[in-house]
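#help-structures
NK: newbie question, is this the right format to request a structure? protein is 3-hydroxybutyryl-CoA dehydrogenase
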Amino acid sequence: MKNIAVIGAGTMGNGIAHTFAQSGFNVQLIDINEASLKRGMDTIAKNLDRMVAKEKISEADKAETLGNIKTYTNTEEGVKNVDLVVEAATENIDLKLKIFKQLDDVCNNDTILATNTSSISITQIAAVTSRPEKVIGMHFMNPVPIMKLVEIIRGYNTSDEVTKTIMDLSKTLGKVPTEVNDYPGFVANRILMPMLNESIETLYNGVAGVEEIDTVMKLGMAHPMGPLQLADFIGLDVCLSILNVMYDGFKNPKYAPCPLLVNMVRAGKLGVKSGEGFYDYSESRKAEYVSKQFMK
């Protein structure tokens, strides 16, 4: 397995492309938007520059990594003769089903199709293809080049051979693959998202402010980042989407998203990506918390 296609040049997609390319794989990074591809490649170059500055890699390593990546706006051309496709598009079920239908049509019959979904059923995605045994979840963590974990999610029909191949492949990337079963949220988000949602509920109910909640979890529970700040970094729209998938999948009210989260997403307050969430990320108020206005 040497040739990898990555669908989506956003935060997760460019991180996945970076990681494979740095490990010596030929990477074909695909996005329908040329501007997104440019931003993705710029991000990879900046992250490599940081690694050079920290003397983790050489300038030659950086040049080789960038040389291993080619960009495409045409999916059919981009996935030609690849061994593995990793889809890292927006966490939207309709979009993912559309992408996998197309991939099934244009990829070689022996190509493995993986998704970086953090919550959506692998079995449901696989069902729109003619190769459900070759569909699997590869849930990387952000930032991909740094975080060691990869959740490997087997769909109902994913074969043992494909699972072993992807587990072994993840190890060659320097990752720690962990096999889990296909239920909403898998393991990482099934545990993480209710905690973030409860933190938002705590704020919404006026128990404490943003800084106070994050301070309790950082100093009292040894979390490197408070839950509200973490939600900002993940993206409040992403948190809402995952909670909705879990709520729909389990029909359990404990997964229902907090009304404050819903309203913030409607208002376009998505966290770091929009410049404001529970914190203000504008240049003049770098990561300053915005506390009292959130209380119920």
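mod (FA): yep, format's fine, and the tokens are attached above. The chain has two domains: 3-181, 190-294.
NK: thank you!
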